[in-house]
């Protein structure tokens, strides 16, 4: 795993299984990320992401994205490039 932190979780919507992530680096569909927190630790491949309910292929640093996640995440969980 790379130790490059690329963002953090700002919110989690449990009914739809989506995490809102504030990015500090560019992220593209197809990349793998790791989400790590006090009780969170998993790796996924980004298969799709949205900005303002619009699907995007790449998001730049400073963007807030919506990402479907397989497990519950918590606010301020760190997001790393895997």
So, CATH architecture?
Beta Barrel
- CATH-derived topology: Elongation Factor Tu (Ef-tu), domain 3
Helix content: under 10%
Which class best fits the helix and strand makeup?
Answer: mainly beta
Q: Any idea of the CATH class?
A: Mainly Beta
Order of helices and strands: EEEEEEEEEE
The end-to-end span amounts to 5 Å
Name the poorly predicted regions.
none
Strand content: over 45%
Question: In total, how many beta strands?
Answer: 10
Tell me the radius of gyration: 11 Å
Counting H and I runs of at least 4 residues, what is the number of helices? 0
Biggest β-sheet, characterized?
Answer: 6 strands, antiparallel
User: How many independent structural domains?
Assistant: 1
Based on Cα principal axes, name the global outline: globular
The CATH superfamily is Translation factors
Strands of the biggest beta sheet: in what spatial order? 5-4-10-1-2-9
Overall average residue pLDDT: 96
């Amino acid at each position: 795993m790379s130790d490059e932190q690329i963002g953090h979780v700002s919110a989690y919507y449990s009914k739809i299984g989506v995490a809102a992530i504030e990015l500090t680096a560019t992220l593209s569909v197809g990349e793998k990320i790791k989400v790590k927190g006090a009780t969170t630790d998993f790796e996924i491949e980004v298969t799709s992401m949205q900005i303002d309910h619009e699907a995007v292929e790449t998001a730049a640093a400073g963007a807030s994205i919506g990402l479907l996640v397989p497990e519950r995440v918590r606010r301020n969980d760190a997001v790393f490039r895997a």
